[in-house]
User: Fold this.
Amino acid sequence: MNTGFMDYSRRHECVALGARIIELRQELNLTQTDLAHLSHIDPSNLGKIERGQANASITTITLIARALETTVSDLTRDIDPTKVSEKVRKPTVREFLEYQQERESRRPQPNS
Assistant:
């Protein structure tokens, strides 16, 4: 039975994504409406994503990342793929996050 509430793990990941979106949006001095327009998504949906109240599809995450002039990997950097809820029915989401994490760990770091 779906009660409409996310389990703790999924909620935590949604909150982490939302916080990262807010952080990057504010760094670019964009309003939520600005980012929604640039991302071609509904402003109320973006608000829910930023508050961790909605799951974002890979497509939506990609649109937001492009509008924020970053990568999906950077946008999802605070999401640990090993902690993604077991209730995520599409293993491709978990696999994608694991792939992104692996790819980032292999990328050469710039000299300090």
Remarks:
- DSSP finds six helices and no strands in the chain.
- The chain has one domain: 8-106.
- The two ends are 52 Å apart (CA to CA).
- The helical segments are 8-27, 32-39, 43-50, 58-67, 72-75, 91-106.
